[in-house]
Design brief:
Elements: E1 5-10, H1 14-26, E2 30-36, H2 40-50, E3 54-56, H3 59-63, E4 70-73, H4 80-89, E5 93-96, H5 104-117, E6 121-123, H6 132-142, E7 148-158, H7 176-192, E8 198-206, E9 212-222, E10 226-233, E11 235-246, E12 250-253, E13 263-267, E14 270-274, H8 281-293, H9 303-322, E15 326-327
Parallel strand pairs: 1-2, 1-4, 2-3, 4-5, 5-6, 7-10
Antiparallel strand pairs: 7-11, 8-9, 8-15, 9-10, 11-12, 12-13, 13-14
Length: 328
């Protein structure tokens, strides 16, 4: 029987119930042992629905369970640092939802605790674990689309009518840059293999939604005169796309972060579809995490990578609020 990493989940968030917990359960390495909520009835209901053996009515209880190796945290953004640190100090490895924290300083504190305790800490950008991004990077490196000139990314959806949504609480880390803008930012950093130098962002700061950014558009400057242009939103029609533009061609990813994994390459010879395996990104993430915990795989995305992504997000938020270009 294959070795299993025993997961505990803090919080019964929608993303956990719809995608992440089923992904753990379908992975080669993971099993979900327990779930905790501040309402025991909610934990019990979720445990019954997803066939999870244990349900706890407090976060503290799940951290003291000796039968749990790792904790997944899908709590609102302002609770990420506190409960990640408490979990690591309790001897658990941690997979924390994106964005990993409210700012780079919080992310650094989490990284420091990871180093001090020896607990593995990772940010839950599941899309990065699908092999198609390695293939995209390979095509860029091959020179097939020429010299890189820019990347454009989008991630938008419309949930503006749900006033109770935690994404609309400013003090809780609400807003579209935190929630979905982080995806094209991380993708550009991944594909360029570099860290950004400056950000300029314009945002719709909605009084109806606690003045969080309900839509944002920006440009993030990278070394070599290459930039990411992006837009993100929670009050717009759904899209999640990525385009990589070169001097001789381009790569178009119609479903860049969720959905159909296939993408298209355009060159002087025409268009071709790169067919990709239809794999569960959440299961791949779980297996990558377990491999790093057990020392069987190299840690692909370190806590320092999460700190770097938060630095870019910090700059985007500052720019959106000051209407100025911000150096990173």
């Amino acid at each position: 029987m294959k070795r299993k990493l025993r997961w505990g989940v803090i919080g019964a968030a929608g993303i956990a119930i719809r995608s992440v917990i089923p992904g753990f359960q379908q992975s080669e390495t993971g099993e979900v042992t327990a779930i905790a909520s501040r309402e025991l009835s909610k934990a019990e209901e979720t445990a019954a629905k997803l066939q999870i053996p244990k349900a706890y009515g407090s976060y503290e209880e799940i951290l003291s369970d000796p039968d749990i190796d790792a904790i997944y945290i899908p709590l609102p953004n302002h609770l990420h640092m506190e409960w990640s640190i408490r979990a690591m100090e309790a001897g658990k490895h941690v997979l924390c939802e994106k964005p990993i924290a409210l700012n780079a300083d919080e992310a650094r504190r989490m990284a420091d605790v990871s180093r001090k305790t020896g607990a593995h800490l990772a940010e839950a950008f599941m899309y990065r674990h699908h092999p198609r991004y390695e293939r995209i990077a390979e095509i860029i490196k091959s020179g097939e689309i020429g010299e890189l000139r820019g990347i454009h990314g989008t991630f938008t959806f419309n949930s503006a009518g749900n006033q109770a949504n935690v994404r609309f609480r400013k003090e809780w880390g609400g807003g579209s840059i935190y929630d979905v803008g982080c995806y094209p930012i991380s993708a550009a950093r991944l594909l360029l293999g570099a860290e950004p130098e400056a950000a300029t962002v314009h945002a719709l700061l909605s009084p109806e939604h606690d003045h969080v950014d309900m839509m944002a558009s920006g440009i993030i400057e990278f070394p070599g005169s290459v930039a990411l242009t992006f837009d993100c939103g929670m009050w717009a029609a759904f899209r999640n796309t990525l385009e990589v533009l070169g001097t001789d061609g381009r790569i178009e990813v119609p479903s860049a972060f969720i959905g159909n994994p296939n993408f298209y390459v355009y060159t002087k010879d025409g268009r071709r579809e790169e067919e990709q395996p239809d794999l569960n990104q959440y299961s791949l993430q779980a297996d990558s995490f377990a491999g790093a915990v057990w020392g069987e795989r190299k840690e692909r995305f370190t806590p320092e990578d999460a700190v770097a992504n938060m630095k870019a997000i910090d700059a985007c938020l500052e720019s959106a609020n000051t209407r100025k270009r911000v150096l990173i």
